Amino acid sequence: MKEILENFKELSKIPHCSFDTKELCDFLSNFAKKYSCKVKIDKAFNIHCIKGKPKICLQSHYDMVCMGEAPNIRLKEDKSFLKAINSSLGADNGMGVSMMMQAIKEFDNIECLFTNDEEVGLLGANKLEHKLVSKFLLNLDHELENEVIIGCAGGVDIRACLRLSKKENEGELYELEAVNFKGGHSGIDIINNEKTSIKEMATFILKNKGQISSFDGGERINSIAKHAKAKVFFKKKPKENEYINVKSLGFKKDLVIKQNLKLLRSINAFAQGIRSYNKELNIVNSSINLSLVKMKDDLLQIELFARANVLEDLLSLKEETKIFFQSFGFKLEFYNFYAPWQAKESKFSKDILQILKKRIKNAKILAVHAGLECGIIEKKQKLECASIGPNIYNPHSVDERCDLNSVARIYEVLKEIIKKYT
Questions:
Q1: Gap between the Cα atoms of 223 and 292, Å rounded
Q2: Dihedral, CA of residue 202, residue 261, residue 269 and residue 317, to nearest 10
Q3: Alpha carbon distance, N-terminus to C-terminus of the chain
């Protein structure tokens, strides 16, 4: 466990926000070569490492969601938990990467695939060029130690755009700031029905009859919105609440958008969160997250992330969202579409469950309402896949924390799996 933690500390020193991973790519490829791996890197900066004659491939992504002060990550151990001070931690999926580094050190026959830019639409997996030699793929990107994942949600990024026209306004101008929101992962944490900064901000402005000069909110396409700011004219100072701070900027002249009510009503009317639930699997089946709002010059962009564990439901959610925003005059774009990984038990997943149950008695097999790259890779290369991982709480947020005792347990499980498939 000590060595895995040291691996993670090394990773944390190297910036690796999505789209800014070149330095970590070089570090990981050099690390693998140091321990006698043959290394290839494709155009998407996926790193493929082979040592000896492997029968199982381990896979993790090496980019992270950077929140708060990240990529400046300052680690803090609190009892048995690892945290970061004022930033996301990057245990998603840095702890999986750290365990793979340790496996490369310890095993003579091992295949590892470090994929890139997972957090921004599974880009690395979609552009994967490497041909894996193993017939079994074990993904290490799950976040609950007692689960073997054999299926995941598909997803699609949605961009709703509205051309703005403006007029001059004068009066008391206020700066609004959203506070006390938890944020979180838009797949894993969507079930908690967390409030979002964007919807609360829009509700506040509409309720107090404000005229918007500027409005920006959210952090990442796959995060529940934590931050939002706006500059708004009000006829009288609105009373701030636990979620919205209000600061007067004095009497000003500024431009406001003519589509004020259209914007506010569309955000207020939009149904954020869970759309359907699967009682058999006991997981969310479909959901949608209003992730980002951006105003720049004469263009308003709203970005959303829809997920579903059944393809038909994902296509329906996509069409419903299109019709909803078109009714308010928006134009829609869809990108980074990937189909769900349909849950199906196999001998491989049952073997993993048996090994996991030796250390975690309540372990079970199920699907998850989040995107996993193994679903894409499985379809491309016709492998048997499953996913496991240590307990990681509040990923994609500054409250992210990783259970170090759980990391130790999962690594013992991982070693036994590798030995069984060697």
A1: 9
A2: -100
A3: 22
By DSSP bridging, strand 136-139 and strand 56-61 are parallel
Is the CB of residue 114 less than 8 Å from the CB of residue 61?
yes
Of the given ranges (67-71, 199-203, 352-356), which has the lowest mean pLDDT? 67-71
**Cβ 288 vs Cβ 207: under 8 Å:** no
Cα separations in angstroms, 36 against 50, 98, 106, 331, 337: 9, 17, 11, 52, 37
Please give the Cα distance from 407 to 176 (Å, whole number).
Answer: 41
CB contact burial 284-301 (16+ within 10 A = b; e otherwise): bbbbbbbbbbebeeeebe
Is-cis flag, bond preceding 394, omega within 30? no
Six-digit token string for 257: 């958008």
Could you tell me if 200 and 210 are in contact, meaning their C-beta atoms sit under 8 angstroms apart?
no
Return the amino acid letter for 45. Answer: F
Confidence of residue 253 (pLDDT cuts 50, 70, 90): very high
Using CA atoms, how far apart are residues 205 and 74, in angstroms rounded to an integer? 37
User: What is the H or E stretch that residue 348 is in?
Assistant: helix 347-357
Tokens 């980002």 identify what position?
292
Hey, is 254 helix, strand or coil?
strand
Predicted confidence (pLDDT) at residue 379 exceeds the cutoff of 90: no
